[in-house]
């Protein structure tokens, strides 16, 4: 089956057994890498989006000023949720007729995820309110989920004849398009841009990352030469794709530019496992483990650019994960979640960092260069 095992069991948990089923593999990264990133992290501001009274919260998607995810209150199951930058801004999108609901992605005006209907998960789309909920489950599907939204489209999978089939919707159940590639026994689509979809398909015993452009016949495998038994693409900008690849028994954060041969290994030096969840422009976010603790992470398209976002947190935190990223002309925004050791709960998080104006960036760079020159000359 499509292993969502490498990622889905952690990042898209089944809410039937509460949201704390989010787990991560042990990932070790050299402590030297942490020290190199600490100065950069001082620029980040972190906002805790966890609403009052919630037992768990997860932020999974972001676009513009809107964050999206799910909230847990005790044993009642998660509720589809959106925020606009503060915990107090939380809006409950949970449809009244469903058992529980989760949102994974937002375009700023539409949200994609699933809701539990009559003992089955149904792919769902919202437009900012609980009353706007639409059931996307196609005719003949026993279950379905929507993992990403872009423009007016949603992607995910529908289970047909007991096998998951990657699918594409345009806002209605009847619009579903089966993207399962020829020769694949299973497939799922995890990410989308306005023109492109990405995910994974099972061929024999190998799960291969791949991309589509709206049809099953457009499938292109991204599985790198020399990779192990699985790879998956979780996000795309339309020209680049990112996710993970299994190499030598380890997870490798991966970046592609439309072909398997373009694969780039983003794992920082000394790491054994990493993965990318989201991307915007030339930046990618995901997670890596340091000393057995998951660290929310950011890259700028190279392994050497890795930043540990967990260093910006105050207090005591366990595992953290970055799930989505978005930028405008002035600010970079990252959403995710972490275990607050003070409460023992997963709590939704929003990182923000100003983007220096070009002139300011040049002044900072010049100042650093002059300081380095003074140090080499033994002056101050």
Question: What can you see in these coordinates?
Answer:
The chain has a single domain (4-377), classed as TolB, C-terminal domain (Neuraminidase, 6 Propeller), CATH 2.120.10.30. Helices cover 10% and strands 46% of the residues. It contains 3 helices and 28 strands. A hairpin with a 7-residue loop joins strand 24 (293-299) and strand 25 (307-308). It is globular, with a radius of gyration of 20 Å.
State the separation between the terminal residues, measured CA to CA. 63 Å
Per DSSP E runs of 2 or more residues, the count of β-strands stands at 28
Structural class: mainly beta
Largest sheet: 4 strands, antiparallel
- Write out the CATH superfamily name: TolB, C-terminal domain
CATH architecture assignment: 6 Propeller
* pLDDT averaged residue by residue: 86
CATH class: Mainly Beta
- In percent, how helical is the residue content? 10-25%
The CATH topology is Neuraminidase
Rg for CA atoms: 20 Å
Count of helix runs: 3
**In terms of per-residue confidence, which ranges show pLDDT below 50 for 5 or more consecutive residues?**
4-42, 360-366, 369-380
Number of domains: 1
Outline, from the CA principal axes?
Answer: globular
């Amino acid at each position: 089956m499509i292993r969502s095992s490498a990622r889905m069991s952690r990042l898209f948990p089944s809410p039937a057994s509460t949201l704390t089923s989010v787990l991560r593999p042990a990932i070790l990264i050299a402590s030297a890498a942490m020290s190199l990133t600490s100065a950069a992290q001082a620029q980040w501001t972190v906002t805790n989006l966890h609403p009052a009274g919630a037992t768990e919260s997860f932020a999974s998607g972001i676009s513009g000023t809107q964050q999206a995810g799910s909230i847990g209150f005790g044993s009642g199951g998660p509720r589809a949720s959106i925020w606009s930058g503060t915990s107090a801004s939380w809006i409950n999108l949970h449809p009244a007729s469903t058992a529980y609901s989760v949102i994974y992605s937002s375009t700023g005006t539409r949200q994609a995820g699933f809701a539990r209907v009559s003992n089955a998960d149904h792919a769902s789309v919202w437009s900012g309110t609980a009353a706007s909920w639409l059931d996307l489950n196609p005719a003949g599907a026993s279950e379905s989920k929507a993992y990403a939204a872009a423009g007016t489209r949603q992607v995910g999978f529908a289970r047909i004849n007991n096998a998951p089939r990657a699918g594409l919707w345009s806002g209605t159940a009847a619009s579903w398009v089966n993207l399962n590639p020829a020769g694949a026994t299973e497939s799922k689509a995890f990410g989308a841009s306005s023109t492109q979809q990405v995910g994974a398909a099972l061929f024999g015993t190998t799960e291969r990352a791949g991309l589509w452009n709206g049809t099953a016949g457009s499938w292109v495998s991204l599985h790198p030469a020399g990779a192990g038994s699985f790879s998956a693409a979780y996000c795309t900008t339309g020209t680049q794709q990112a996710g993970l690849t299994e190499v030598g028994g380890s997870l490798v954060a991966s970046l592609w530019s439309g072909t398997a041969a373009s694969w780039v290994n983003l794992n920082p030096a000394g790491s054994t496992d990493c993965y990318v969840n989201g991307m915007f422009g030339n930046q990618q976010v995901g997670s890596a483990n340091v000393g057995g603790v998951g660290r929310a992470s950011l890259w700028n398209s190279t392994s050497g650019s890795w930043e540990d976002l967990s260093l910006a947190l105050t207090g005591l935190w366990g595992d953290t994960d970055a799930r989505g990223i978005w930028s405008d002309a002035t600010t970079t925004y990252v959403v995710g979640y972490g275990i607050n050791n003070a409460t023992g709960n997963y709590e939704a998080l929003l990182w923000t960092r100003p983007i220096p104006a070009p002139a300011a960036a040049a002044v900072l760079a010049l100042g650093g260069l002059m300081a380095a020159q003074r140090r080499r000359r033994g002056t101050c």
